[in-house]
């Protein structure tokens, strides 16, 4: 059986596990290294049995050659390195990169993927330990793919250093790529490649120098930048554009890491601006931008090259720069955007530079079409440049009109950029932005939440005294259908705008009531206090307000801010509900029982907050003096909440019950209408500032000082309570000599002898709580020392 298997077509199932075993037949070098084995012959190139072909049967047995008998139980296949036949019980080698990618993509579960990667990482570690230089870059390439998937690959850092130090380009390519991915400033190992990068930069081979520059610009630390500045500076003047553009970008990275290196690269920028190569010129503009942003001296230096930059941009706009860099008919938009960004920095707060670039900006704004994304990018940078420099008024209006055209674009990103830019300009160019108010209002209806939010912010910024009513109607319509995330911002914005620009108090009250009815709990915390204060200050609108609020409360008691305002207003002006008002087109007929039942319904509702129940309970209590009917029902409702679990509500109910039982004769006076509270305004703020300044002046006035002994006797008086019998000594000599003598406790002319009667001091014994009185007399012959008084005070305590 075994002989028949061995003499027939060999079993290639084990060989197909690694396609590299068969594909080597197509490489002449590997064919010459592989010894001939009896029973097999070389596959003819392009024949049906070509190497690596799964459908052609692989290598076939020669018809005239007798196959060598195989050992029983052994399958023949080519070895991985030596080419000799191995047995199936040998360890399976690791996968190639392409096969690894295919296996990982074919994993059906996350656990299967992790198992496959763990096995392959074990093979990679084993290969690193073996130290095979020919396989190191292949294993590191697989490890980098594993790192890109998010799995740990830190054990390959030292292998990157070995590959970078290798003289082979294939090793350096993978090594530098691994260094960019696996190393950064947080690892000390990145400093070990400084010498390798320095040697490669000085080597003179352009591909190797390019790899070293890319690595340095990606992960170079401040120490590496300082050590390699000379080499990068030399490469800036190389004739090859390939190296110059990479050296320029590396210089940008060095300046960001070490700003003091700006003086090294500053002299070369003027020469690099004359380059015609796209990459070199674009990199030079980027380098100058970075220098101007970080150094005021460089900013002053490069303002001299504004005419040259204007000429380069004018050439791009009119004649074009290079056909291969044109996108959708726009000549080199990346270079245009970078030049406009640099012009914006150079023209900021500089009149002469702004005048130089005004004509060019107008030309770019008028000649660039808005139909393509590339042209929109150029126009947007143009608008930003016009707004940042000292441009003419007509040019700023042109910029706002460009943003207005952006709002009509079908692309959502373009509309978002336009809304953000107009929001920045609304303070400086309010009238120009107002022309696009209808388009901005249309953006409120966008389904994209981010666009709706920016349109809401811009709409609120456009509100003024002339359009307050029209804009409020639009915003109220948006409030009814806006997403929950925007409802709080919209309600807050309407309330602030109405408070600032309300034409009449009645319109203001109606607006706030509409917001409270629509937004509900999304309004600000101070909305209730502001509305109650507004209603209290409008005496002529008390009847109108209480009727509107009663009708709104009867329709819906779920909106807590509205219920709180309505309960307060009914409690204050509930008697006006029973009167007929000529302001209402439809008279409201209300009975006392209906009002009390509605407030009791609010108290019993499970939707009412504890604060809302407090408003309703207080309103019921106040109605006991506003209504002329029997108060027994009100007393019963109030007494129920005397045992409420809420402490605040329970306290109110207990106090109100006490008011009914013991102080009923004072109830009408206590429950009078609340007085009007003065609202804070600019005038009140000024008065507060004046009073504060007066207080500071009074504090700064000199205050006569008392003698130290008198202060000490006052301290002794505090221990025994107020005493009016304490006699104070006469003031000491205020002269400098007398003060110095008392300070040093030196003998001096004593004042007239006088007995100081110290007040009786009562102390308590901590052990037996026994009172005892201490009476002391002291003669004032000679100076009284502060130390002596302090010691006696300690003894008394």
Please explain how this structure is put together.
The chain is built from 40 helices and four strands. Helix 27 packs antiparallel against helix 28. It is elongated, with a radius of gyration of 46 Å. The strands form two sheets. A two-stranded antiparallel sheet has the order 1-4. It has a two-stranded antiparallel sheet with strand order 2-3. The chain is an all-alpha fold. The chain is 60% helix and 2% strand.
Mean pLDDT: 76
Kindly report the spatial arrangement of strands forming the biggest sheet.
1-4
Measured between the Cα atoms of the first and last residue, the distance is 116 Å
Low-pLDDT residue spans: 1-92, 681-690, 697-797
The profile of the biggest β sheet is: 2 strands, antiparallel
| Tally of alpha and pi helices | 40
Q: Would you count the extended β strands for me?
A: 4
Q: Please state the overall shape, judged from the principal axes of the Cα atoms.
A: elongated
Portion of residues in beta strands equals: under 5%
Please tell me how large the radius of gyration is: 46 Å
Helix content estimate: 55-70%
SSE-based structural type: mainly alpha
Pfam families: Adaptin_N
Domain Clathrin/coatomer adaptor adaptin-like N-terminal: 113-663
Biased composition (Gly residues): 46-56
Subcellular location: Endomembrane system; Golgi apparatus
